[in-house]
Amino acid sequence: MSLETGRRPAEQVEGDLAERLRPLTKQDAFAEASRCLYCFDAPCMVACPTSIDIPGFIKLIQTDDRLGSAQRILEENVLGASCARVCAVEELCEEACVLAPGEGPIMIGRLQRHATDEVYGDADGFARAGIVAGVATGRSVAVVGGGPAGLAAAAELRVAGHDVTIFDRQPTLGGLTMYGIIPLREPSEVALWEADQVLALGAVARTGVEIGRDVTADDLRRDFDAVFLANGSGQRVSSIGLAGDDAPGVEDALEFIERIRVERPSNVPVGRDVVIVGAGNTAMDAATIAARLGADTVTCVYRRTQLEMTGYPNEYEHCLGDGVRFRWLTQPLRVLTGEDGHVSGLECAVVRLGAPGPDGRPVPEVSDELVTIACDHVLLATGQRREPQLFEHFGLETEWDRPKMTGAFHTTDPAIFAGGDAVLSGKELSVVDAVAQGRDAARAIGAYLEDHPRG
Ligand SMILES: Cc1cc2nc3c(=O)[nH]c(=O)nc-3n(C[C@H](O)[C@H](O)[C@H](O)COP(=O)(O)OP(=O)(O)OC[C@H]3O[C@@H](n4cnc5c(N)ncnc54)[C@H](O)[C@@H]3O)c2cc1C
Ligand code: SF4
Predict the structure, then answer these.
(1) For residue 273, which phi and psi values (nearest 5 degrees)?
(2) Are 442 and 226 in contact (CB under 8 A)?
(3) How far apart are CA 142 and CA 144, in angstroms?
(4) CA separation for the pair 113, 120 (Å, rounded)
(5) What is the dihedral angle through the alpha carbons of 383, 324, 432, 225, rounded to the nearest 10 degrees?
(6) Best residue among 181, 229, 319 to mutate for probing ligand 1, ranked by most atoms within 8 Å of CB
(7) From 31, 193, 412, 445, which residue has the greatest number of CB atoms within 10 Å?
(8) Which ligand is closest to the CA of 180, given by its number?
(9) Within 13 Å and on the Cβ side, how many CA atoms surround 412?
(10) What pTM value is reported for the model?
(11) pLDDT for 2 beyond 80
C-alpha cells in the first residue's frame, strides 16, 4: 500500500484550494464601512498588534478614498494585504469591536482587504501608498529570515534610509506566508507581491543562503552595522517520540503543507485514510488539505479535548464542514505497519484528564485502554521544532531554545537583535505579531545605530 496522487481531478482540487473569502464589492464595502461608530480610543486599534488606525481607514473607504485607506493601513503594517486574509480577526480587532455582542462586529479584515486591493498587484504599489525609501544614512543591517518579521523590519529600515540585505535559506522570500499558510487562506501571489514591494524599496535579497552554513555570524558582524534575527520558530515539527514514526507513510504536516505550495497540489500524494496527530492550526490546515486532495477519511487525534485544542474555532468548523473527524482524549503510542512496511494503523491509548499543569491546562493521564485507528497516512502536527543552533552560532545566550532577551528586541550582544516567531510563543505566533515585532525592532535598531556612530 502506498500514498496516491490524483485522487480527484486536478481542476477540482485547485478550485477547492483557491482563496476561500471573496473580495467585497464596492457597495458592500461602503455599506459595511457605514456601520462603523468611529469610536474615540477605538478598542479594535488596541487589539491590533500593529495598531492600525482602523476607524481612520474605514472612514476613508466610506469617503471613497481607497488609496488613502490603503496608505493608512500600510504605514503601520506593510503586510496589510496578508494580514487582511490571515489574521484571526475573531480573536483580535473584530473581537474588540463594540458592535460585536449585538449586531456583529464590523468586518475589519475584509475591509482591510478591500482597501489594500487598491494597490495589491501594482509594481509600484507601496510607492503609490507613500511607502518610499528614506535618505541614505550609509549604515547597513543584515536581516536573517525573509518572513513577515524580516520583511516588516527591512521595509522600516529602508524607509529610515538604512541599507538592508535579507538572507533566507529558502529560494523565495515570505517565510511561512509562502510555505506554511494554506492557499485557501492566502494565495502565494499575495506573499510574493509583498516581498517584491520590500525589494522595490531597495532591500537586497540573498535567498538560498543559510546563515551558519553558507555565511557565518562573523561575516555578518564584519559586513554590517547590526543584525536582526527573524528566523522564525522552525519549519519542521517536533518529535513526540512516537514509536515507528520513521515508517513510510508517516510525514511531517509542515512538509505536507509546503508541498501544496511548491508543487501542483494534485501531484501531492495522500492516503485513503489519513490520521493527523494534533489539534492546533497546523493540524487543521493539514486535515483540510488532505480532505480536499481526496482522502476517504481524515481524523485528528488529540490527547486533550476540544476545550483545550489550540486550533482556531472557525478553522475547526471548516474542518467539520470538510468531513474531518476528531478523536479527543486519544494519545498516539505506536505506528503500526503492514507486511510491506507501510503504515497500516496508529495504536493509541485512551486518556483521562488530571489536575491542571503549570500551563493551567489539565494534564493528560494515559490509561491502559488501547484503541487502533486503521490508516495509511499519518501526518505529525505536533508543534514547530525551534532551531537554537543559529543563536548559539552567534554566541548568544539562550532560554527555552530562544535567544535570551536583555530588552525589547535586544539579545545578549548589543549589535544583534531578534524578533518575530524566533522570540514569541503561544497565541503570539502569528503574522500580525511578527510584523509588529519586525517594525518595532527596526526602530530599536535605528536608535542603536544613532547611538553607535561608525568609528
Ligand atoms: C501551518 C501554519 C499555518 C499558519 N497559519 C497562520 C494564519 O492563518 N494566520 C496567522 O496569523 N499566522 C499563521 N501561522 C503563523 C505565521 O505563519 C507565523 O507566525 C509567521 O510567519 C512568523 O513570521 P516570522 O517572520 O517570525 O517567521 P517565518 O515566517 O517562520 O520566517 C522565518 C524565515 O527565516 C528563514 N530562516 C530560518 N533560519 C535561517 C537561517 N539560518 N538562515 C537564513 N534564513 C533562515 C526561514 O527560511 C523563513 O523564511 C501559521 C503557521 C503555520 C506553521
Ligand atoms: S492587521 Fe489584523 S488584527 Fe490588525 S486590524 Fe488588520 S486584520 Fe485586524
Answers:
(1) -120, 110
(2) no
(3) 6
(4) 9
(5) 40
(6) 181
(7) 445
(8) 1
(9) 11
(10) 0.96
(11) no
Q: How far is CA 205 from the centre of its chain?
A: 20
**Nearest CA, atom 10, ligand 1:** 430
Question: 116 C-alpha to center of ligand 2: Å?
Answer: 12
- Given a contact cutoff of 8 angstroms between Cβ atoms, the answer to whether 306 and 360 are in contact is no
SS3 state of residue 163: strand
E strands, 302-415, where? 325-327, 330-337, 343-356, 362-374, 377-380, 398-399, 402-403
Cβ atoms of 423 and 397 closer than 8 Å:
no
Q: Which atom of ligand 1 is nearest to the CA of 148?
A: 25
| Domains of the chain from N-terminus onward | 23-127 (1.10.1060.10), 133-235+385-451 (3.50.50.60), 250-380 (3.50.50.60)
Q: Is residue 73 within 8 Å of residue 115, measured between CB atoms? A: yes
Confirm if 45 and 436 have CB atoms less than 8 A apart.
no
Nine-digit cell at 413?
Answer: 550582544
What are 334's strand-pairing partners?
243, 347
**Which value, to the nearest 10 degrees, does the dihedral of the CA atoms of residues 41, 47, 48, 50 take?**
80
Whether the CB of 48 sits within 6 Å of ligand 2: yes
- Is 429 a residue whose pLDDT tops 70? yes
Q: Widest CA span of the chain, in angstroms?
A: 69
C-alpha pair distances (Å), 118 with each of 4, 23, 419: 41, 11, 30
DSSP H/E element including 61: helix 54-62
From the CA of 145, which ligand is nearest? 1
Q: How far apart are CA 94 and CA 134, in angstroms?
A: 34
- The arrangement of strands across the sheet holding 226-229 comes to 204-207, 163-168, 140-144, 226-229, 416-418
28 burial level (CB within 10 Å; 0-12, 13-18, 19+): middle
CA dist 99 and 94 (Å) reads 9
204-207/250-252 β-pairing:
unpaired
Render pLDDT for 258-288 as a digit per residue (tens, 0 to 9): 999 999 998 999 999 999 999 999 999 999 9
Residue tagged 498516539 (cell numbers): 332
Helix (H/G/I), strand (E/B), else coil: 228 = strand
Cell numbers for 51: 495598531
Q: Kindly report, residue by residue over 324-364, the tens digit of the pLDDT.
A: 999 999 999 999 999 999 999 999 999 998 888 887 888 88
Residue 183 CA to its chain's centroid (Å): 12
